[in-house]
Each structure stands twice: as structure tokens, then as C-alpha cells.
Design a protein that fits this description.
With 360 residues, the chain is α/β, with parallel strands linked by helices. It contains ten helices and nine strands. Belongs to the TRAFAC class TrmE-Era-EngA-EngB-Septin-like GTPase superfamily. Septin GTPase family.
Length: 360
């Protein structure tokens, strides 16, 4: 009723709509006061329904089907990095996450594994398809990290690699004639493997996560958690959480990026259990008539996907089933955006060439 009355009433101060209106150069003061009162009234006080009720089916919900069909045709990209010392089961963990041989082991059976003298980065790309959905998965391994006697600045090659991917994306983005879809090689998540010592975090672990958490989403996990008892695992996890809080290290999911109360409540439950105590295995065993992934020991089989045995299902849910798109969004909107702003604000950043848009 309020909207209809507003449309039918003539403008304030106007006479008949058929006669021209004579206006003086100095409007009366009363009109100014009335205009100020009109501006002061908020729009939310107008009566009427908040939403608009439809008389029939329009088909707005079909947008979701359109997005699904388009995503299934084009697919999407996901880039993950694993960091940790040799022998912590990084390759096995990645193969267990995606249930396929997406990460090659550093050495074949019967061959001696040589520890590289410096940190080397190896990226392997696979196309995984499940129920018609294609995902271009890139796994980046970091052999040689933390394996030397002197591990000073061993994180520099990793930081350089992550920034190089941001730089590559930025150079494609500032082109005058850009591609419709820019190839995304940026690292969306970094899984850091903490050795199962049962003590506090090492200075290497603290320094790495302190530096890397500022440019990438870091998810710490306790590797080979089956070497710890349940009491040792809980105590070790509590010490790691205290270390992260004491040194102001913000790992994923970060509290500052929670969008609404529901996300905050979900992420709070995840943050209580970080770092996840995980066990990786890429071999199946027969348990109660079912084939399960697990590790066979003298006293039984450790089922990887059983939440009573380890927290691998929580890690899988976080990286793939519930927060995969959020990892990509935070990478693009937060980490890459801060890198882009920093690069464009640098005094030595060259302007784009008029020919191709590349920096001269």
C-alpha cells in the first residue's frame, strides 16, 4: 500500500500536472527541511513484503543445473603441495586421498633412495574423473626438505615456487587480450607433515608454518600416527595447538576468513582437531568380508578410513568433500590478491606494453 501511494501522489510542491510550474531561484526553507526529513528516513521502514511472491513457476532453480552441466563439461583444477621429511609417507598419503596412483614414490622397490642435497620440487599432473566430473589434479612434492644437517632457509625454494605461480597468473591476467580461462597453477593447499615425535614442534616446523601460512593455505598433519598411543597422540596434538597459538601461526581454516556463523561453527570444530593424526595406506585388505584400505600389523589391521583408528577421514573431508572450493576461493581472494597488490605497488613494476600487454 505504501508503494502504491507513493506512485499515485504527485511530486511534493507540484500543482496540476497539466500546467507549467513556476519556480523561483530561491526555494522556500520549508521545502529544504522536508527534503532533509525525506533523506533522513531509511528505506527499510517502508511497508510491504520483503520478497516478491511468484504467481507460477519461473525456473530460477534451473541455474544450478546449468552450472553443474557447465562444470562437468569444463572440469576444474586443484593443486596441492605436500611438504615434510623423507619417510613420513607423503606419496602414500596423496595416493590414499584420491584413491589412485597420482603421486610417484621417490624410489622403486629394491633401489636405494638417494636424499637430494637441496630441496627439489616435483610436480605431477593427472586428470581424475568421477561420475562425469573431471578434475585436473597437480601434486607438488618437495624431496629433500628437512633431510640435511643444516636446514637453514630450506623453505626458500618452496616460497619461490609458490610466488612464481602467482606471478605467472598475474602476467596472464594483465594481458590486453586475455584467455577466456587462465591456466591456474597456483597452490591451493599445502599439507605439512609433522614427525610423530610426541614432543613439541621443532623450530623448523614453526618457522616453516610461520612463513608459509602468509602466502598459502597450510594444513598440518601428524604423519604415521599409528606409532603413537591414543594418550600420546592427544597430548602431542594439544602441544602443537599451544605452539601455534603462542607463535601466532594461523593455519587453515583461518578464523579471520569465516563468512557467517554457520561457517564459523563448522570451522571451530575442525580447528579443535587440527593437526589431524593420519595414517596412509594404498593397499586393500579383507576385513569382515569387506575390502578396506589399511596397514597390516602383527596385532591387526589399521583401517585408514575408520575414524576410530585415525583421523584420515577428517583430512579427506576437509581437502576434498567440504572445503575444496573454499581453499580455491581463499587462494584467489586473499593470498593471490595480497601478492598482486604488492607487485603492482612496487616501484620497479613495469607498465604493460601496448602490443601484447606484457611488462616491457
Amino acid at each position: 500500500r505504501g508503494v502504491q501511494a507513493h506512485r499515485l501522489c504527485p511530486p511534493r510542491g507540484a500543482g496540476s500536472s497539466l500546467e507549467p510550474e513556476e519556480r523561483s531561484m530561491e526555494p522556500p526553507a520549508v521545502a529544504e527541511e522536508e527534503e532533509e526529513e525525506e533523506e533522513a528516513v531509511p528505506l527499510s521502514v517502508a511497508p510491504g513484503p520483503v520478497g516478491c511472491q511468484l504467481f507460477g513457476y519461473v525456473g530460477i532453480e534451473a541455474v544450478l543445473d546449468q552450472m553443474k552441466i557447465k562444470t562437468m563439461k569444463t572440469g576444474f583444477e586443484f593443486n596441492i603441495m605436500v611438504v615434510g621429511q623423507s619417510g613420513l609417507g607423503k606419496s602414500t598419503m596423496v595416493n590414499t586421498l584420491f584413491k589412485s596412483k597420482v603421486s610417484r614414490k621417490s624410489s622403486q622397490p629394491g633401489q636405494e633412495e638417494r636424499i637430494p642435497k637441496t630441496v627439489q620440487l616435483q610436480s605431477i599432473t593427472h586428470v581424475i574423473e568421477e561420475k562425469g566430473v573431471k578434475m585436473k589434479l597437480t601434486v607438488t612434492d618437495t624431496p629433500g626438505f628437512g633431510d640435511q644437517i643444516n636446514n637453514e632457509n630450506c623453505w626458500d625454494p618452496i616460497i619461490k615456487y609458490i610466488n612464481e605461480q602467482y606471478e605467472r597468473y598475474l602476467r596472464e591476467e594483465i594481458l590486453i587480450t586475455r584467455k577466456r580461462k587462465i591456466p591456474d597453477t597456483r597452490v591451493h593447499g599445502c599439507v605439512y607433515f609433522v614427525p610423530p615425535t610426541g614432543h613439541w614442534l621443532r623450530p623448523l616446523d614453526l618457522e616453516f608454518m610461520r612463513r608459509l601460512s602468509k602466502i598459502v593455505n597450510v594444513v598440518p598433519v601428524i604423519a604415521k600416527a599409528d606409532t603413537l598411543t591414543l594418550e600420546e597422540r592427544a597430548e602431542f596434538k594439544q602441544r602443537i595447538q599451544e605452539d601455534l597459538k603462542t607463535h601466532a601461526i594461523s593455519v587453515y581454516p583461518q578464523e579471520d576468513f569465516d563468512q557467517d556463523p554457520e561457517d564459523r561453527a563448522l570451522n571451530d570444530r575442525i580447528r579443535e582437531k587440527i593437526p589431524f593424526a593420519v595414517v596412509g595406506a594404498d593397499q586393500e585388505h579383507q576385513v569382515n568380508g569387506k575390502r578396506v584400505l589399511g596397514r597390516k600389523t602383527k596385532w591387526g589391521i589399521i583401517e585408514v578410513e575408520n575414524s576410530a583408528h585415525c583421523e584420515f577421514p577428517l583430512l579427506q573431508d576437509l581437502l576434498i568433500r567440504s572445503h575444496l572450493q573454499d581453499l580455491k576461493d581463499i587462494t584467489h581472494n586473499v593470498h593471490y590478491e595480497s601478492y598482486r597488490v604488492r607487485r603492482l605497488n612496487e616501484s620497479n613494476w613495469p607498465g604493460p606494453s601496448p602490443l601484447n600487454g606484457l611488462p616491457t
